[in-house]
Structures are given as structure tokens and as C-alpha cells.
Amino acid sequence: MENMIEVKHLSFEYEAGAKTIEDISFTIPKGSYTTILGHNGSGKSTIAKLLIGLLEGQGEIIVDQIPLTIDHLYEVRSKIGIVFQNPDNQFIGSTVRDDIAFGLENLCIEPDLMPGIIEEYARKVNMYDFLDHEPTKLSGGQKQRVAIAGILAMSPSIIILDEATSMLDPLGKREINELVHQLNKEKGMTILSITHDIEEAAISDQVILMGDGHIIQTGAPDVVLKDVKTLESLALDVPFAYKITSALKKKGFPIEETIDQKGLVETLWQLHSKK
Amino acid sequence: MAITFKEVEYTYSPDTPFAYHALKGIDLNIPKGSFTALIGHTGSGKSTLIQHINGLLIPTKGEVCVDDYIITATNKQKLKPLRKKAGLVFQFPEYQLFEETIEKDIIFGPMNFGMNEESAKKIAREMLVKVGLDESYLERSPFELSGGQKRRVAIAGILAMEPDILVLDEPTAGLDPQGTKEMMRLFKDFQETGKSVIMVTHDMNQVLEYCDHAIVMNHGQIEKDCSVTELFNETEYLESLSIDLPIITSFIHQLNKKGFHLPVSIKSVDELIEAIGGELS
């Protein structure tokens, strides 16, 4: 499959001699949903900032065949939308409507088309009733939805979510996750989600495990998330379904380890009815 | 120290066009030594409620009693001693760090309440270790730390005031799983010394694992005041509020629909595995 992002031997240090990111390489296939998992301080957010050229490291970053260099900076950025953990750092407009419009104006969208796009995405994140409110006066979760709408409205080829739902309540989190999955499937947007949520990683296409500035493992969740030793050594959680199945297997039940919760209910049901 | 609310009403900016009736007829009793979860959607009044516990907000009507402090609109009792007893940790407390060194930041609170510098420094050391950082951090700037470490320092600053009640507003938001576990263990240890913890949270897994008492707020009112086990039994009610069940409880309900008979009171994965194993063999 064609790659949307290629990273080769990337390193970065905030202070000389203390590498935050050390010689990492990975690829993100076009249209995939990739999660980067890692503990606080493992360098996950630094990668996001490097990918959009907010920070400059050593090594090579290629986005949709375009090398990220000073000459191509804006071209690369036009392809990527990023949502940070704290939306306060992202507001420009004095109303939610203006804020979503800001990105569209930068893309030189026809003014006649803007109201339709703004309203569509405000509806998608359930903030339509707040279009004339001031973003700074909204609650944390509402702000995050506005930030997400502003990015989605620009229809970037790639969306990077940097712990973007960590301030939302479970319902808000679920709604945004569903929306992102929908955009991934229907519009083929490439998603890169930086998260602590092992269950979110379990339903993605590719997982990149980070620890102390290095990539520890890359692969399908079905492989990476079953490596309990590695997950535990990185202070990460183990998927719920895996905990249950591995323990039952140890007890001698005929069951295979899985990370798929829905499938597990079916499997246990069958075991139970055969009893 | 028990906490009681009697017919508490609170209105922001009363007698103005911006008046907002945030708490309506709150009656509440939080027993001493409990670990209470305060649950509800954004805007349901949770933050307004917790700020009444240490007198940051004064009820517009009704009364709040914390131990022998009675807070009413007219009572002019001094509230400073109460604020030492009830330590309030806001969301993202790391944004409140301000001193040059971590030690100075932690001793600020206790010294403000009249502790001498020597004792305050002694307790700063103890609390820093308690939150999982060592003494080498004392002389460092709090601004060099990672987000999770800053949060620990901020919480050490509250613990250093030796409160009897700890009020926490989403204390683990943004922390990684390991950091979350350590932080929750710290609060549980605090409670196990006989003190009370009240925690605002959206994470029902935490409620199941650590809390014993649950309060659900909606539109400025208390809708439920019950044990955690009772709460998670009411699946339809929780669904109507769009509150997710803990992953363990939700899994139990799914299996029970398929013919299992697992108790919904199960609180840990280990217990769950035992119970499933029991039914399969």
C-alpha cells in the first residue's frame, strides 16, 4: 500500500545531549488508522510536532511524497490537521463560527460555501447550538469538540489527534471516536492517534509502541497488544479481553488469547452452552 | 468529618441578567471515611458543589456543615481553618505551580496556615516521597517536570497541609495508566487512614475499583445517592444519562444476557476471571 507518511532515522533533542526522540523510523499507510501508544514523557507528542514541522529534528520526514523541508513546509501542513490535548491553545475566533471559518479562509474556500461547511461540521460534533458562543467560555469538552470541528472542516488528508479526547467525558469521547472512524472509512482520511487508551489501539490498523524516545514495536494490534511483557515494561495497560482470555487459558479452558471484546462474549457463550 | 448539605441553593451572578441557578435544593450527607464519586455531565453542577465544601462558594440559601463549621449566606464564621481541613484539588492542578523550586511550592500552603518553615520542609519531603518523587527533586524547578510529575507536585502541596478531607476534580485526566494507578492508590491510602475523599470523575472504571459511595448530579440536582454497587445495577438509568458502565460491569451484563449468572458486584478483573472460570467448569 502507498505510504502517507514516511519517517526515516528521526532524532530530536530539546536540550543538547538529551535526546527526546532517538533514531526512529516508521511508515503510515494511506487511509490507515494508526495509534501511537506510550507513557507520559515517552516522546509521543514530540513526534506530532515534528511531523507538522513545528519542531525541526534530524532525519527525514516525507508526507504524501513531499519531503518536509523549509521549502515545502506549507504544502505539507496543508495536508495535515492536528488537534492537541489542550484546545485553549488553538482558538482564534471570537465565536465558534468564526473559529471554524478561520481554517477555511486560510484554504481560500469560496465564501458562499463556508456557512454550509461550518454548519455541517458543527452538527457532526454536536456544537451546532453553540455557533455564536465565545469559544473561551465553553467547557473543556465543548472546546475540544470545536477544535475538532475546525480541523475536520478543512478536510485534511491526515488527522493527527494528540490525546485529543482526554478531556471529554465517555460519551463525548465515544462520539468523537466514532466520527473519526467514520471519516477514516468513508473519506479515506489517514488517522494518527496519540493515546493512552489501549482499547482504542485495539481497534486500530497499526500500533506504534513508544518508550523513552524509541520505537519499541510496530505492528498490527493483534500482535503488538498481546506482548504483555513489553506493554508492562512500558507502564502500559493490557487489553481487557486479553487479561480474561490468557487467565482462562492458563486455568486450562480451551480458549485462545484475543484482544477482541465482542468476539470474546461469543466465544464464552459457546463454551458456556457446550458445558 | 462528616459533610452535610441542607437545602442548598446556589445562583451565580444573582439579580443580574446573567443569573444562573447552578444548585437546586441539594440535600446530602457524606459520611466520614468514605470514598465518594461525584458523577454527572459537564454543567450538571459538580464543580459548583465541591467548591461549597471548603467555603470557596457560599450557599445562596440553605446550609453546608463540615464538621463543626456551618456555612450559610449570613454566617460570618472565619473560613480559613476550614480550608486547611478540606483540601481542594482543581482540574489540572499543575497549572497552579508557581514557585522557583518544588520545595518552595509545597511548603507554601502549610506555611500559609501558620506552620513554621522547618516543619513545613520536613513534611514537604515526606509528601514528595509519598507521591512517588524522591528528595532530589526538592531543589529543582517545577517547570522542568513532565505533566504527570507536575501533577504529583501539586498534589503533594495539598497533602502537605494535612487535610482531613480531600476533594478532587478529575485528578487523573491526561495521566498514563501507570500514573493513574499510582495516583489512585495514593488517594485510597489517604482514605484508609480514616479520612474522606470526594472525587469528580468521568471514569466509571475508577468508580468501581476505588469508590464506595456514588452521587449522580443532573441539572443542578442530586438524582442518585447510593452505593457504587447499586449504581451500576441500574443500567437503564445510566444509559438514559449516557453514562458508560465500567468495562467489567458491562462485560458481566453482556455475558449474563447470554445465560451466565455472574454477580454484578464484582470489582476486579481477577474476581471476574474466577467467576467466569467457576461457571465454565
UniProtKB/TrEMBL annotation, chain A:
<keyword id="KW-0067">ATP-binding</keyword>
<dbReference type="Pfam" id="PF00005">
    <property type="entry name" value="ABC_tran"/>
</dbReference>
<keyword id="KW-0472">Membrane</keyword>
<keyword id="KW-0547">Nucleotide-binding</keyword>
<dbReference type="GO" id="GO:0042626">
    <property type="term" value="F:ATPase-coupled transmembrane transporter activity"/>
</dbReference>
<keyword id="KW-1278">Translocase</keyword>
<dbReference type="GO" id="GO:0043190">
    <property type="term" value="C:ATP-binding cassette (ABC) transporter complex"/>
</dbReference>
<feature type="domain" description="ABC transporter">
    <location>
        <begin position="5"/>
        <end position="237"/>
    </location>
</feature>
<dbReference type="InterPro" id="IPR015856">
    <property type="entry name" value="ABC_transpr_CbiO/EcfA_su"/>
</dbReference>
<dbReference type="InterPro" id="IPR050095">
    <property type="entry name" value="ECF_ABC_transporter_ATP-bd"/>
</dbReference>
<dbReference type="InterPro" id="IPR017871">
    <property type="entry name" value="ABC_transporter-like_CS"/>
</dbReference>
<dbReference type="InterPro" id="IPR030947">
    <property type="entry name" value="EcfA_1"/>
</dbReference>
<dbReference type="GO" id="GO:0016887">
    <property type="term" value="F:ATP hydrolysis activity"/>
</dbReference>
<protein>
    <submittedName>
        <fullName>Energy-coupling factor transporter ATPase</fullName>
    </submittedName>
</protein>
<keyword id="KW-0813">Transport</keyword>
<dbReference type="InterPro" id="IPR003439">
    <property type="entry name" value="ABC_transporter-like_ATP-bd"/>
</dbReference>
<dbReference type="GO" id="GO:0005524">
    <property type="term" value="F:ATP binding"/>
</dbReference>
<keyword id="KW-1003">Cell membrane</keyword>
<dbReference type="InterPro" id="IPR003593">
    <property type="entry name" value="AAA+_ATPase"/>
</dbReference>
<comment type="similarity">
    <text>Belongs to the ABC transporter superfamily.</text>
</comment>
<dbReference type="InterPro" id="IPR027417">
    <property type="entry name" value="P-loop_NTPase"/>
</dbReference>
From TrEMBL, chain B:
<dbReference type="InterPro" id="IPR003593">
    <property type="entry name" value="AAA+_ATPase"/>
</dbReference>
<keyword id="KW-0547">Nucleotide-binding</keyword>
<dbReference type="InterPro" id="IPR030946">
    <property type="entry name" value="EcfA2"/>
</dbReference>
<keyword id="KW-0472">Membrane</keyword>
<dbReference type="InterPro" id="IPR003439">
    <property type="entry name" value="ABC_transporter-like_ATP-bd"/>
</dbReference>
<comment type="subunit">
    <text>Forms a stable energy-coupling factor (ECF) transporter complex composed of 2 membrane-embedded substrate-binding proteins (S component), 2 ATP-binding proteins (A component) and 2 transmembrane proteins (T component).</text>
</comment>
<keyword id="KW-1003">Cell membrane</keyword>
<dbReference type="GO" id="GO:0043190">
    <property type="term" value="C:ATP-binding cassette (ABC) transporter complex"/>
</dbReference>
<dbReference type="InterPro" id="IPR015856">
    <property type="entry name" value="ABC_transpr_CbiO/EcfA_su"/>
</dbReference>
<keyword id="KW-0813">Transport</keyword>
<dbReference type="GO" id="GO:0016887">
    <property type="term" value="F:ATP hydrolysis activity"/>
</dbReference>
<keyword id="KW-1278">Translocase</keyword>
<feature type="domain" description="ABC transporter">
    <location>
        <begin position="3"/>
        <end position="244"/>
    </location>
</feature>
<dbReference type="InterPro" id="IPR050095">
    <property type="entry name" value="ECF_ABC_transporter_ATP-bd"/>
</dbReference>
<dbReference type="Pfam" id="PF00005">
    <property type="entry name" value="ABC_tran"/>
</dbReference>
<dbReference type="GO" id="GO:0042626">
    <property type="term" value="F:ATPase-coupled transmembrane transporter activity"/>
</dbReference>
<keyword id="KW-0067">ATP-binding</keyword>
<protein>
    <recommendedName>
        <fullName>Energy-coupling factor transporter ATP-binding protein EcfA2</fullName>
        <ecNumber>7.-.-.-</ecNumber>
    </recommendedName>
</protein>
<dbReference type="InterPro" id="IPR017871">
    <property type="entry name" value="ABC_transporter-like_CS"/>
</dbReference>
<comment type="function">
    <text>ATP-binding (A) component of a common energy-coupling factor (ECF) ABC-transporter complex.</text>
</comment>
<dbReference type="InterPro" id="IPR027417">
    <property type="entry name" value="P-loop_NTPase"/>
</dbReference>
<comment type="similarity">
    <text>Belongs to the ABC transporter superfamily. Energy-coupling factor EcfA family.</text>
</comment>
